[in-house]
Amino acid sequence: MNIDLVKDRSSDIHVEFIIKDELKKHKIYKFLNKIGFNAKQDSICFSHKNKTLFCGVDDKSADNVRSASVSAIKALKSTNYKSASFDANAANTRAIIEGLVLGGYEFNKYKSKAKKSKLKNIHLLNDDIASLQREFEEAIIIAEATCFTRDIVNTTPDDMTPPELAKVAKKLAKENNLGCNILGTKELKKEKCGGILAVGRASRHDSKLIHLSYKPKNVKKIISLVGKGLTYDSGGLSLKPATSMVTMKMDKAGACAVLGIIKAVSELKLDIEVHAFVGAVENMIGGDAYKPDDVLVSRKGDTIEVRNTDAEGRLVLADVLDYAQEKVQADYIFDFATLTGACMVALGQYTTGVMGHSNRLKHDFSKASSKAGELTASLPFNKHLKKQLKSDIADICNISNKPYGGAITAGLFLDNFITEENKNKWLHFDIAGSAYTESPWDVNVHGGTGSGVRFMTQFLKSIK
Ligand code: BES
Ligand code: ZN
Ligand code: ZN
């Protein structure tokens, strides 16, 4: 499906948004009313005679136009129309593109006979295309980077192993002219990455620490992104119940988001330096598996009592965060991880949990995410929850000794590996709920959602 921005182009069908409260004023209201179209948000109505698809919206806010564009593209893809057009303007271009690209996304890698849609061309129409060009191009880049992230998340665990994820990163680095350094088991041993090595030990695949870098000239800021890349999380010896294990291919979504973000930033040619660090590991069982009761020595040197091998993401991130902070003196450090089921209990499955010490930074992300159309909410740290990570035999325990506040205690575990000088530069994003879905919502279809890509690029674009 090709989307272009043009002044004037005929198409098989035109899409028109109708505000519900203005339906009665519409020139063909009588007809629309007769056939029962009420212009409710996300409702649609074809008038083949008028070559128009009517889409209901509550108002023309970006959120509602985006959502209506999802309904439009889903309907259009099931028709025989080959081309469609939309009236674009400064307020709706980005929303329409996101609705079309993200809502029309399909992952057909494993379908032997994928249905092909007839729809080939979508024209966004505006008399002054020059004024919309940059907005249009940016929206396409960000939407496509989100789909890139989704594709990797959706790839099955035996096809997207840690070495395969490293290959994807290497290919991206080559295509987008990024720096690329990949550490395998041998280098991870040299780096004393005790967390990564323990978690990955029972896997038949080598663990990888991936570092991509985008370094333009005259940078305003330096950003480090860190992603949890558990290509599969069986839980390890603290094995997950059968039903909870299904979908755990998505435990690499943090890593995939970080790759999508550096792809978008490099294509947008933002004048910031971005480093993407990924811990790619598979958490399996076997005679060689790490165990509850083990004490690990992290790269930082702190010892960690393992009481649950299913709290593995934080062990991997402890090492990757430590490595990232040593290698790059960044202005901001952001980590993305499908870290806890507790985050979903706290916020529901649609909302990313934001944790960190800087209220200013959290506020900036609250603004960036509502502008980008993603849901985020802050989960506050406190010293009482921090105490729950105390270990009787080691420096810290990998799980809390109490059953409540699990998303925050996981965030506080990561905090232990953030240096004093970086405390206010760091935020942790728990995308456990928002990164994957088995039923469609908003611009998301079954599978990876690409959560994080849009709100992070929005934040990075706003850096002065
Ligand atoms: N990858 C999971 C978290 C998760 C759960 C992500 C559901 C997406 C959906 C993580 O490694 C995990 O298993 N966390 C445990 C932590 C617990 C053992 C303290 C959890 O959330 O149950
Ligand atoms: Zn786990
Ligand atoms: Zn996990």
In CATH's first tier, which class of the largest domain applies?
Answer: Alpha Beta
CATH architecture of the largest domain: 3-Layer(aba) Sandwich
Shape estimate: elongated
Distance between the termini: 35 Å
Mean pLDDT: 98
CATH superfamily of the largest domain: Zn peptidases
The residue fraction in helices comes out at 25-40%
Number of strands: 19
Structural class: alpha/beta
Number of helices: 15
**How many domain regions?**
2
Rg, Å, rounded: 23 Å
Strand content: 15-25%
How are the secondary structure elements laid out?
Elements lengths: L1 E5 L6 E7 L9 H6 L9 E4 L4 E6 L4 H16 L5 E5 L5 H11 L17 E5 L3 H26 L7 H15 L2 E5 L1 H6 L3 H7 L7 E7 L7 E12 L8 H4 L7 H16 L4 E11 L11 E3 L5 E3 L7 H15 L4 E6 L3 H7 L4 E5 L2 H14 L3 E3 L4 H5 L8 E2 L8 H10 L10 E5 L5 E2 L9 E2 L4 H9 L3
Parallel strand pairs: 1-6, 2-4, 2-5, 5-6, 9-10, 9-13, 12-16, 13-17, 14-15
Antiparallel strand pairs: 3-4, 7-8, 8-10, 11-12, 14-17, 18-19
Description of the molecule:
With 464 residues, the protein is of the alpha/beta class. It folds into 2 domains: 2-127, 3-Layer(aba) Sandwich (Leucine Aminopeptidase, subunit E, domain 1), CATH 3.40.220; 142-462, 3-Layer(aba) Sandwich (Aminopeptidase), CATH 3.40.630.10. It has 15 helices and 19 strands. It has helices at residues 29-34, 62-77, 93-103, 129-154, 162-176, 185-190, 194-200, 242-245, 253-268, 313-327, 341-347, 359-372, 383-387, 406-415, 453-461; strands at residues 2-6, 13-19, 44-47, 52-57, 83-87, 121-125, 179-183, 208-214, 222-233, 273-283, 295-297, 303-305, 332-337, 352-356, 376-378, 396-397, 426-430, 436-437, 447-448. It has an 8-stranded mixed beta sheet, with helices on both faces. Strand 14 (352-356), helix 12 and strand 15 (376-378) form a beta-alpha-beta unit. Helix 2 (62-77) packs across helix 3 (93-103), helix 10 packs parallel to helix 14 (406-415) and helix 12 packs across helix 15 (453-461). The chain is elongated and about 75 Å long. It starts with a strand and ends with a helix. The structure holds ligand BES and zinc ion (2 copies). One zinc ion binds at residues 233, 235, 310, 312.
